[in-house]
Amino acid sequence: MYVGRFIVVGPGIGAYRVSSRSFPDRQIVERDGALTVAPTADAPETDNPYISYNCVRETGSGEVVVGNGSQVDPITEKLDLGYPARDALVESLLALDYEKDDYDTPRIAGVVGDDEATIGIVRRDAVLVEAVEEPTLVATYEEDSPRAFEFAATTAEDAAREAYDLDFEHAVCAAGVAVSGGDGVETAVIND
């Protein structure tokens, strides 16, 4: 099944995976303290504004934002201003809305803290944001309502690998995050 881009977030753990039929020549790179989805060196030229963006950013308070587009930056900035995770997600997702591409691609985002997590999506027909107590998945297609999801990872490396290896079609790359009050934030990337 093709679900497009997706995130899994839960208290202390999160992952983001790029799955793509249209733009598979992408990778996740570290850039200016963030993890950024960017074209590979051999990717064809494109003017599509949705293929390169920050997908993982850490806040000043040790939370991590994951998502499939430019909404990651304003969510992070709002959290740094003291907004609660729910408000930062709602305001940013509403302001940017779904992507105005041929598929009306939803924007997805999550906030991972040491002992709490919040997940959200803005689709053409709805905005859904909720606090979650266990790993929860939301994707741009098919799985476009948050739902509890079996996800065993406990480290960033495990989260990236597990997300990349999930049985959804057209895996391109993945990022994992682990947030621990004692150990801080750990990130990992899979570019297979």
Describe the fold and architecture.
The chain is α+β, with helices and mostly antiparallel strands and 192 residues long. The protein has one domain: Glutamine Phosphoribosylpyrophosphate, subunit 1, domain 1 (4-Layer Sandwich), CATH 3.60.20.20. α1 runs antiparallel to α2.
Protein traits:
192 residues, seven-stranded antiparallel beta sheet, six-stranded antiparallel beta sheet, 3 helices, alpha+beta, Glutamine Phosphoribosylpyrophosphate, subunit 1, domain 1, 13 strands
Name the CATH superfamily classification: Inosine monophosphate cyclohydrolase-like
Largest sheet, described in full? Answer: 7 strands, antiparallel
Q: Uncertain regions: pLDDT < 50 for 5+ in a row? A: none
Number of strands: 13
CATH class: Alpha Beta
What's the number of helices? 3
Class from secondary-structure proportions: alpha+beta
Q: What percent of the residues sit in helical stretches (DSSP H or I)?
A: 10-25%
What is the H/E order? Answer: EEEEEEHHEEEEEHEE
**How large a portion of the residues is in β-strands, by DSSP E?**
35-45%
The CATH topology is given as Glutamine Phosphoribosylpyrophosphate, subunit 1, domain 1
Mean pLDDT equals 96
Strand order of the largest sheet: 3-4-5-6-7-8-9
Termini Cα gap: 20 Å
Question: Which CATH architecture would you pick?
Answer: 4-Layer Sandwich
Radius of gyration: 15 Å
Question: How many domain regions?
Answer: 1
Shape: globular
